[in-house]
Every structure is written in C-alpha cells, then in structure tokens.
Design goal:
Layout (H helix, E strand, L loop, with lengths): L7 H4 L2 E2 L17 E6 L1 H19 L8 E6 L4 H9 L5 E11 L7 E6 L9 E9 L3 H11 L5 E9 L13 E7 L5 E2 L15 E4 L1 H9 L1
Parallel strand pairs: 1-8, 3-4, 3-6, 6-7, 7-8
Antiparallel strand pairs: 2-10, 4-5, 9-10
Helix pairs in contact: 2-3
C-alpha cells in the first residue's frame, strides 16, 4: 500500500517570529537561557498537529503493518515521545545514532554509533529528527537507510533553521516540519549543550557566554 501525500496544512512549518520570544521561567538553569523560543504549550500543540497529519497520511499504509518510527539519538527522544502518542495508528519504535566526519570532499561519511534492530526492508519508515541545521549527517544517514530497501522513508523534524541542505533536494523527503527558527544556538526539549539542558520543557537560546566560558575553560 502507498503513502498519501503529506497533509500540507499541518505539515508545513510554522515560522517562529522573534517578537514572540519571551523570558525563561524560573528554574535552576534559567540563568543560562537568553530567551524562550518555543514554550512547552506550543511544542505540545505542534506535536499533536504533526501526529494528526501523519495519521492521515499513513492510514491506508498502516492497514498492512505498523509504521516504523526511527528516532535519532539523543536529541529527538523528547519530541518523539510526544509525537508518537499523537499518532493514532499502530507504530513500532526503533533508535539510531550516527555521527558524520567531513573530509576534503563535500559528501563526507557517516558512522553508525547505534544501529537499528529492525529489518527495514519492505517497511514504511519515518525518521524523527530534532533539528535540521546543515543536514549533512541526516542526508548521509538517509542514503545508508535507503540502501536497506524500505518501501518508503520520510523525515519528521521538529525544528528547521532553513539553511541550504542536501536533504531538501529530494521532493517529499522532509515531509513534516514543526517550526522554522532563527539560526541561533537552541537547547531544551531534548536538545543539549555538553549533555546539559535536555530536560528543559521549552526550547530556548543559550546565552553565548555559557559556551564561550566553557570553551575558554
């Protein structure tokens, strides 16, 4: 069974305006946050909208078997937990972790640090990603997973910095996007700096002096 075209009304990214940025709520890590980009409430609402779009698009395909949700470690875990609960279809979960090493060529290479336990052949699969920045690691990962012959392979990304990215060259590949955000260093809701801030319930911009101080120290 085929997958329908993405429900564009729900899958199209919401552009985050800087005018909507706000101060961080009180907390032990709030002093490191310059401003909040996306509140806990907006993130929860968007996960429900994307889940509804995925449900509609994969409804027919799911009659033949569960959708395979591939969660990229570690940043996408929090988003994935909210997203899959908003998908009203049978869903199987698997996890993958990859790292890219860019050499003198533009293609670079990808190293799988934690591989899937599921056979991808003949499956409808959806990669759940936290953020699209340069997209190089993700595009190389997609090439690796395509070689395993899934029936379909699409991407659902929470955040997109809207930079030139090879993943955009394949029509329909980046099928679902939560928000387009400014090109700033964001943490929270699974995203980290030096493994910190993942547990923040919102997404905020890290103050430059935090990572500058760490680099100098």
């Amino acid at each position: 069974m085929s997958v329908s075209q993405p429900a564009r009304d729900l899958a199209r990214p919401i552009v985050v305006e800087t005018a909507r940025f706000g101060p961080p709520p009180a907390g032990c890590q709030s002093g490191d946050i310059a401003h909040v980009v996306l509140t806990e409430e907006r993130l929860a609402a968007r996960a429900r909208e994307l889940g509804a779009a995925i449900t509609r698009d994969y409804w027919q395909a799911a009659q033949a078997g569960p959708l395979l949700a591939i969660v990229t470690l570690r940043g996408a875990i929090t988003f994935a937990a909210d997203l899959v609960r908003a998908i009203d279809l049978p869903v199987e979960l698997d996890f993958i972790s990859a790292s890219s090493y860019e050499g003198t060529t533009t293609t670079g290479s990808v190293r799988i640090l934690k591989d899937l336990e599921t056979n991808l052949a003949g499956r409808h699969a959806l990669i759940i990603e936290d953020i699209i920045d340069t997209g190089l690691t993700l595009s190389q990962l997609v090439t690796e997973l395509d070689a395993r012959r899934p029936t379909s392979l699409r991407i659902c990304a929470l955040l997109d910095k809207n930079k030139p990215c090879p993943i955009r060259e394949a029509p329909g590949r980046l099928a679902y996007t939560g928000f387009t955000i400014p090109d700033e260093f964001v943490v929270g809701y699974g995203l980290d700096y030096a493994q910190r801030y993942r547990n923040l319930p919102y997404i905020g911009v890290l103050k430059p002096e935090v990572y500058t101080r760490a680099e100098q120290g």
